[in-house]
Design a protein that fits this description.
two-stranded antiparallel ribbon; extended; alpha+beta; 44% helix; 157 residues
């Protein structure tokens, strides 16, 4: 039986997350990372049948990615040089923001999104609903998605 392995890629400059699924990947390359743990925490670590890949991609595109980019707070490091001259990363509360807020804070941020995407368009998406409203919407969508997977698994079995 084929498996789906979620892959996360984060652009180091803009911190925009891209989530995809692949059909085959060597187990040696499945390394748990901070970003990869977001998927596991959200959907759990149970097997998702390959036939449900389209449903998974729809859930990611419609709910998980917008939540991560516009509503989920993240800690961003600040490099501090200690008295010995070593660089130490700190995570001050002032640097907690969403990925969209972080993108806006980058100098010349308007040049980073892909062509056709503006900060104004992203702002419209971010302000459509509050973080709590979007999280509730995402939880409902996740429940529906997991029910569909369960029905599929019971139908196949």
């Amino acid at each position: 039986m084929a498996h789906l392995y979620p892959i996360n890629a984060v652009d180091e400059i803009t911190q925009w997350e891209i989530v995809a699924s692949v059909e085959r990947i060597s187990e040696a390359y499945l390394v748990e990372t901070k970003n990869g743990s977001v998927l596991g925490k959200n959907l759990g670590y149970a097997h998702i049948p390959q036939a449900c890949a389209e449903l998974l991609n729809e859930y990611h595109k419609g709910f998980l990615n917008p939540y991560i980019n516009f509503h989920r707070p993240c800690f961003f490091p600040v490099s501090v040089i200690d008295h010995r001259g070593r660089i130490k990363k700190t995570y001050p509360y002032e640097e907690v923001m969403t990925l969209y807020e972080r993108l806006k804070s980058v100098p010349r941020a308007g040049g980073y999104p892909r062509p056709g995407v503006t900060l104004e368009k992203l702002g419209t998406i971010a302000n459509q609903m509050s973080a709590n409203q979007f999280a509730e919407r995402m939880v409902n969508a996740r429940s529906k998605f997991l029910q569909q997977i369960t029905r599929f698994a019971n139908w196949v079995a």
